Amino acid sequence: RLMSPDDGKAVMKFTKGLPAEDLVLMRWDVLTADGIKQWTESIRANRTLTVLAIEDDKVVGYGSLHHHQLFWTRHHGELRIMVDPKLRGAGLGRQLAKELFRLAADLELRRLVVNIAADQPRVRHMFEDLGFHAVALLPEWVMDRNDRVSDLIIMSTELDA
């Protein structure tokens, strides 16, 4: 289901249970109330759509579509997908991605982009299977909470007209 601003606490509880390496490429610091507030304000402003995966009344994954308001990138959307580590490999991330594709088409977006750390081959493979291809490699672009750097891969796909 779509996330509402009222889901902030449940999403924060989910993100606090994630491994630190999963939290590197977040748009906001989702471990803080302020970061969750920025996320929910973006939902209220219709700049972000987030689909929640719920199991036994708790969040076990989500997919977010951030769509740009700038004139020159208004046809772009950026995806972020996160799945509970215990449920990875079962297709939930792919299912969330497909739902985000549908939402992007509803918004008449033409291009989707995803940023992944170069040390995430399973994530890269999933997005390649969905039609994404690498468009840029930015060496030592990402810094984690322990000041370790890694490369960033930017992947993109065009949506069918």
Task: Characterise the protein shown here.
There is one protein chain. The longest helix has 15 residues. α1 crosses α2. A hairpin with a 5-residue loop joins β5 and β6. With 161 residues, this protein is of the alpha+beta class. Strands 1-2-3-4-6-5 form a six-stranded mixed β-sheet, with helices on both faces. The model has no long low-confidence stretch (mean pLDDT 90).
Draw up the topology in text.
Blueprint: H1 8-16, H2 33-44, E1 48-55, E2 58-67, E3 76-83, H3 92-106, E4 111-117, H4 121-129, E5 133-143, E6 149-158
Parallel strand pairs: 3-4
Antiparallel strand pairs: 1-2, 2-3, 4-6, 5-6
Helix pairs in contact: 1-2
| Spatial separation of the terminal alpha carbons | 25 Å
Helix and strand run:
HHEEEHEHEE
Report the structural category: alpha+beta
Q: What is the chains' assembly state? A: single chain
The unreliable regions are: none
**What order do the strands of the largest sheet run in, or round the barrel if closed?**
1-2-3-4-6-5
Shape: globular
**Helix proportion:** 25-40%
Quote the beta fraction: 25-35%
The count of helical stretches stands at: 4
What is the makeup of the main sheet? 6 strands, mixed
